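User: Second chain of the day. Same drill as before.
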Amino acid sequence: MLPNRMNLSHSTEEQLKKLKAYTGVTPNISARIAFFRSIESDFRYQGKLTKLDGSLVLDKYTWLGETSEVTELLLKLHYPDLDAKAYQQAWAAHVEDGIASIRNHKNISNLSNSI
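Assistant: Same format as last time:
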């Protein structure tokens, strides 16, 4: 469903890198946290195409890890009629939405307490 190689927008990627500098949490892990935070907040992707121009292009397993099946099932549940490219856009939109709630944490303790 999701393509094997995925990336995010440049601005989202920068926020993930900044969070890594503060907390030590790698961008792929913080992207997973951000995705699920966004799903929990009832954010819904509206089909708006965002330029996914980030330089961090990783394979699907690196981005999603052991959450890949759950992530894909949640996307399919919320957006049953999308194609692979649109699913990547939806995933990226959820990561962008979710990172807003965790990007300002200055250390791992504060981040873990907010989750």
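Residues 3 and 84 are 6 Å apart (CA to CA).

User: Great, on to the next one.
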